[in-house]
Amino acid sequence: MHKSIGPGLLESVYENALCYDLRELGLKVEQQTPMPFIYKEVKMNVGYRLDLLVENKVIIEIKSLENLAPVHFAQTLTYLKLSNMKLTLIQNC
User: Fold this and answer.
1) Domain CATH code at residue 77
2) Disulfide-capable partner of 36 in 11, 24, 43, 55 (CB 3.0 to 4.6 Å)?
């Protein structure tokens, strides 16, 4: 994807392109899925959003940065914890 589009664009461009490619492969992909925080059985929308959720199993976080920082890895670990999923990927375009 990065080779065909090139660097320096907004994350949303890469997100939409990857979503398109994954759907072309026949995969179910959701974009910008809200990830609620659950406290005492109450779902609270506190602003977490998954860039891409593939087949309800894999979280893909899209970045468009020169370098990833520890906070970006922590973000994906938070998503895993809140979702009870086991796999997340960071795609830095």
Assistant:
1) 3.40.1350
2) 43
Query: Is residue 27 very low, low, confident or very high in pLDDT (cuts 50, 70, 90)?
Result: very high
Query: What pTM, to 2 d.p., does this model score?
Result: 0.90
What domain range is 66 assigned to?
A: 2-92
Q: Which of 27, 20, 30 is nearest to 51 (CA)?
A: 30
DSSP strand E in the chain: where? 29-34, 37-39, 42-44, 49-54, 58-63, 87-92
Residue 93, judged by CB atoms within 10 A of its CB (0-12, 13-18, 19+), counts as buried
The Cα 10–Cα 57 span in angstroms is: 25
